[in-house]
Each structure stands twice: as C-alpha cells, then as structure tokens.
Amino acid sequence: xxLSICVYCGSRTPENxxxxxxxxxxxxxxxxxxxxxxxxxxxxxxxxxxxxxxxKNNGTVxxxxxxxxxxxxxxxxxxxxxxETPDMxxxxxxxxxxxxxxxxxxxxxxxxxxxFEILTWRxxxxxxxPIILINSESYFDGLLSFVDTSIAHNFVKEANRSLFHVASxxxxxxxxxxxxxxx
Length: 183
Fold this sequence. Notes:
By secondary structure, the protein is an alpha/beta fold. It is built from 6 helices and 7 strands.
C-alpha cells in the first residue's frame, strides 16, 4: 500500500520524552509501511524527529515549506523532496493535495491551525480523507472537550464528530488507516 501520510506536529521539541518517542516512531512506522511522509519541511522539533526517523528507515519524505519559514523552521535539505511555497495557504493546500490521510500529533498553535483547517475542509466536502488525532498522554483531551461543548451549543453538528478519529497511540492510528479507512 503506497500511501502518502501527512503528519501535522510541532516545530519545537517537547520536554516530555514520550512525545519525542512518538514523533520518532511515527516517522519510522510510515517508512516501514512503505508509505510516504508529507510534512512541514523543517528539520527542528517534532518535524525534524519524524523526518529523520523516516529517512533513517529508507522512507520517502516530502517537505513543504513556505519561503518565510525556511529560516525559522530551518528547512530540512536532506529529505527526498523539498517544495517551497510562497505562503502558508499554498503550503497547506499542497499538503492536502499530496496526502491520502492526515495524522495529528501533539503540537502548538500551528498544529491546531492545520488540524482545524483540514477538518473544516472535510466538513465542507473539499476532501474525504481520514484525519486521526493521536491523543498520546491525553494531550488532546481539552480539544475533545471543546468539540463536545461546540456540539452541545449547536455550533457543530453531532454527526460531524465522525469527521475525525481519535487514537490513543500510533498502533491504533495505524490500525485505523489499514483496516477501517483506506481501501
């Protein structure tokens, strides 16, 4: 199965070693499954950990980075392909176009922005690709509570909860991709 998996995650390295391990394991898993990694193109933080782990396991890694972030996120020039975009909007659209599914790891505002945009695009019917949050260490519990609150206040339809999946770990996310969502 030759899939392109987009991973959204932080450009910072977290203090929690479990998140560091999750990033490395995600890159390794994608490469070992012979899937292609699509990510934000940086060599620092969780992004760099994922890319390096995939490369170490002979994976194909596509980094997509806007010109303005080349310096800040320190573009990873050792990946299979680097695609430079003029802005964030183009970056996110190209990441969606080049991917068959999306995995969201713990991260900051940028990660949440990417998650909500790709989720909104699915809600609007722009794509129908799997989106999986990996809720390691209960990181996304507050976000999931927010979704419940949005549903309770009728800002989000109850049915839209099914637009994304929540996995407790990488193995569950991999199972969802292999057995439930991708033919």
